[in-house]
Specification:
Two copies of one chain form a homodimer. With 114 residues, chain A is α+β, with helices and mostly antiparallel strands. The model of chain A has no long low-confidence stretch (mean pLDDT 87). The interface between A and B is large, with 41 and 41 residues. The structure holds a DNA duplex (30 and 30 nucleotides). Chains A, B: Keywords: DNA-binding, Transcription, Transcription regulation.
DNA sequence: GGAGAATATTCCTGTAAAGGAATATTTACA
DNA sequence: TGTAAATATTCCTTTACAGGAATATTCTCC
């Protein structure tokens, strides 16, 4: 109703709102990685790495490709596109102005209702 | 080390990663609002609205201006700018390509190490 | 100064989720 | 076929945090 955004996907944000998971995502920004590589670079135990990757995967943030013993994880573009357009829907706020205007309108309205 | 981003502020994401709080933020996108207005529009009890606003405020997402009895909350631009540039740091991913390239490089490297 | 709004704070309780440790699963390879 | 590597899964425990209900605080106005 208030724009094209069906609302940012809560799940995406929840998935990212965890220190180790965000680190994983930032690691993967530079290219696909193996579970073991991720665990090592972040100083995580393998099971925790796998669990976090599962969460990321369940939320469509990450993609997996099996290759023999290894599982290679990489970022999926979609969530980032979505996040991008969500953030863009706050452009007016980001550019400031508008605050003052609205502020002013609010005060007008308040006086009227008194 | 890996780019200009000092790392997205975890706190920002955690603060947003809660259903009611994201609804508050989206409400405020259209302009400043009073605690009562927010509570009413979202069907929240006043105390919970206040609590969520406190979290948002503590994390610099929201700004408060006292006006008599009322407290008027509005969005602060900074976190959204930060989020925006963070997301932008994933441009390569968002634009796809790169996956295939990196993929290919990975495989090369794997063969070498065998 | 007392009453009643609007908002904040406190205390309590339930629950989701993260980490640890152990174990299961799959694959390569000798 | 047996062993070892890489990964996933399960079970347990602990902790953070959201909601409910009650109460405190601050302001206006008579």
């Amino acid at each position: 109703m208030s724009g094209m955004n069906p609302g940012m996907d809560m799940a995406t944000l929840s998935a990212l709102a965890e220190p180790n998971r965000i680190k994983i995502v930032e690691l993967l920004r530079d290219g696909p990685l193996t579970v073991g590589e991720i665990a090592e670079q972040l100083g995580l135990r393998q099971p925790q790495a796998s669990k976090h990757l599962k969460v990321l995967s369940d939320n469509g943030i990450v993609d997996m490709k099996a290759e023999a013993n290894r599982r290679i994880y990489k970022l999926r573009p979609e969530p980032f596109q979505a996040l991008d357009s969500w953030v863009k829907s706050f452009q007016r706020v980001m550019e400031e102005r508008f605050d003052n205007l609205e502020d002013y309108l609010r005060e007008l309205q308040n006086k009227e209702n008194t």
